[in-house]
Design goal:
The protein is of the alpha+beta class. It folds into three domains: 4-130, 2-Layer Sandwich (Beta-Lactamase), CATH 3.30.450.20; 153-258, PAS domain (Beta-Lactamase), CATH 3.30.450.20; 270-420, Alpha-Beta Plaits. The protein is 42% helix and 26% strand. The protein is built from 15 helices and 16 strands. The strands form four sheets. It has a five-stranded antiparallel β-sheet with strand order 2-1-5-4-3, with helices on both faces. The chain has a five-stranded antiparallel β-sheet with strand order 7-6-10-9-8. Strand 1 and strand 2 form a beta hairpin. Helix 13 packs across helix 14. The chain is rod-shaped. It starts with a helix and ends with a helix. Residues 10-16 have low confidence and may be disordered.
Length: 422
C-alpha cells in the first residue's frame, strides 16, 4: 500500500490526515500516480494493475518508459503544456506497455500542482479503456464490413434523420442518382422525388406501419432530370423509449417492370386497330369522371355513335378496307372533338365520346355540327368515294343516369331510336 513516507514526500506542503487520504486513494478504481520531474513518486494499486508491476518496481521509474513509442511525443507535449493553462485537467488517450508485453489503452487526466516551496508535481488519473477501445474497434470494423457489403449491393440503401435529411447512403445509390455523396448527405430525401408531395405520402405510410417494414413504390429524379421507379422496403427507426429517429430503407430499380406494366395496361385499355381507348379504358375514365362530378355537383355527358353502313363496306370492299374505313372514322372523330374529350371504340362499329367538362346541351350541338362537317369531307376507299353515315344518342349525368351502365344504356337507346328513323 501507499506508505506514510511516500505520501509525505510527494505532498510536503499539504496539511491533512495522511492515513485518511492514503486509504482513500487506495479505494479509487482509477489509477492514481504522482510525477516529480517525470518520475513516479506515488502510485495506488489500480495504477500498478494497469502496468502489471509491483509498487516497489514502479516508484522512481520514468513514467514515459511505459508509453508506447508513437505516443511519447503527445504525452510529453501535454505534460509540458499542462503548467501553462488554467483549463481543467487535460485529457489524452495513450497506449501503454503492460508487463505481459500486451498493450493497454489508457485515458489519462493530468493535473499540475505546485507546492509552497515552488516544487512542481503532476497528478495523473488513469483509466483502463482497453475493453472500450476493443469494442469501438470491433464496431468500426463491423461498420466498414457493413459499408463494403452495402456499397456492393445493386440497390439503394439509405437512412434519414427525424427531419428527413439523408445521413447514410450507399455508393451505388450515388451512381443510380447521378450525384456525389456530398450532394446527397445532409439534404432532404424529398428533394430527390419526382414529386416532393409523394415523399409526404410515402412517409405517412411508413410511419403508420409502427416500425415494421413496409413496401412502397416511388418515382425518383436523377441529377440530369430523368426519372426512374424504385420499390422500397423501409421502416421507421426509434430509440429505446420509442422516439422517432428517422427512416431506413433499401430500394431496387423497377423502372423496366413499371414500363412493362404501363405497356400492358395500354394494351389492355386501348383498341389495337384505331389506338382509341377501348371499353375497359372508357369504363375506368367514366367511373373517375362520375366520382368528380358527384363531389363537385357537376355534369358529364357522353355521345354514343354507331356506323350505319359498316356491313356494306366490309361486304363490298373486304375486311382490310373495312379496317381502313374504321381507322379513318376514328381519326375524324378525334378531329371533331377537343383534346379534353375522350374518344373510345367499344365495339366493332360503336364509338363513345366522353365530354368531361360540364358541357351544356348547346355545346354538344356545336360539336355534333362540327362532326357532321368533318365527316362530309371526301374519303377514297379502293378508288371509290365513300361516305360516313352514322347515328348517335347522348346522355348526361345526373339527368339520364348516375352510373356508367345507366348512361351508356340511355345513350345506346337514343342512338337506336335515331337509327330506326332512317
Amino acid at each position: 500500500m501507499i506508505t506514510r513516507d511516500n505520501l509525505q514526500q510527494s505532498t510536503k506542503s499539504a496539511i491533512f490526515d495522511v492515513d485518511f487520504y492514503s486509504d482513500l486513494i487506495e479505494t479509487i478504481q482509477d489509477g492514481i500516480c504522482v510525477l516529480s520531474s517525470g518520475q513516479i513518486t506515488l502510485a495506488n494499486c489500480a495504477f500498478c494493475d494497469i502496468l502489471g508491476q509491483d509498487r516497489e518496481q514502479l516508484i522512481g521509474q520514468e513514467f514515459s518508459q511505459h508509453i508506447v513509442l508513437e505516443y511519447l511525443d503527445l504525452f510529453e507535449h501535454t505534460l509540458d503544456s499542462s503548467f501553462n493553462t488554467e483549463k481543467p485537467p487535460q485529457e489524452i488517450e495513450l497506449e501503454f506497455q503492460h508487463s505481459t508485453m500486451n498493450h493497454r489503452w489508457v485515458q489519462i487526466k493530468i493535473k499540475p500542482l505546485v507546492s509552497k516551496q515552488n516544487e512542481a508535481f503532476n497528478v495523473l488519473t488513469l483509466r483502463d479503456i482497453t475493453t472500450r477501445k476493443s469494442l469501438v474497434r470491433e464496431l468500426e470494423l463491423s461498420e466498414q464490413y457493413f459499408k463494403k457489403i452495402v456499397d456492393k449491393l445493386p440497390s439503394i440503401y439509405y437512412r434519414t434523420d427525424a427531419a428527413g435529411r439523408l445521413t447514410k447512403i450507399s455508393a451505388h445509390s450515388c451512381e443510380m442518382m447521378g450525384y456525389t455523396m456530398e450532394e446527397l448527405i445532409g439534404h432532404p430525401l424529398a428533394n430527390f422525388y419526382a414529386d416532393p408531395k409523394q415523399r409526404a405520402e410515402t412517409l405517412a405510410k411508413i410511419l403508420a406501419n409502427l416500425g415494421k417494414p413496409i413496401e412502397v413504390e416511388s418515382l425518383l429524379r436523377r441529377k440530369n432530370g430523368s426519372t426512374f421507379w424504385v420499390a422500397t422496403s423501409a421502416y421507421a427507426r426509434t430509440d429505446e423509449v420509442g422516439d422517432f429517429l428517422g427512416i431506413e430503407g433499401m430500394s431496387v430499380d423497377i423502372t423496366e417492370r413499371k414500363n412493362i406494366e404501363t405497356n400492358l395496361r395500354e394494351i389492355a385499355i386501348k383498341d389495337q386497330l384505331t389506338l382509341l381507348m377501348n371499353r375497359f379504358g372508357l369504363q375506368d375514365h367514366m367511373e373517375k369522371s362520375l366520382l368528380r362530378a358527384k363531389r363537385q355537383s357537376s355534369q358529364i355527358s357522353i355521345i354514343f355513335i354507331d356506323l350505319d353502313k359498316f356491313k356494306y363496306i366490309n361486304d363490298s370492299y373486304g375486311h382490310q378496307a373495312g379496317d381502313y374505313y374504321l381507322i379513318e372514322f376514328a381519326r375524324r372523330l378525334q378531329r371533331s372533338f377537343r383534346e379534353s374529350d375522350l374518344v373510345a371504340r367499344i365495339g366493332g362499329d360503336e364509338f363513345v365520346i366522353l365530354l368531361d367538362d360540364n358541357t351544356l346541351s348547346e355545346s354538344i350541338s356545336k360539336l355534333l355540327n362540327r362532326l357532321q362537317d368533318i365527316m362530309q369531307e371526301p374519303f377514297v376507299l379502293c378508288h371509290q368515294n365513300v361516305s360516313f353515315a352514322y347515328s348517335f344518342g347522348n346522355a348526361t349525368y345526373p339527368k339520364h343516369g348516375t352510373t356508367v351502365s345507366d348512361l351508356l344504356n340511355y345513350a345506346d337507346q337514343q342512338m337506336y331510336l335515331a337509327k330506326k328513323q332512317l
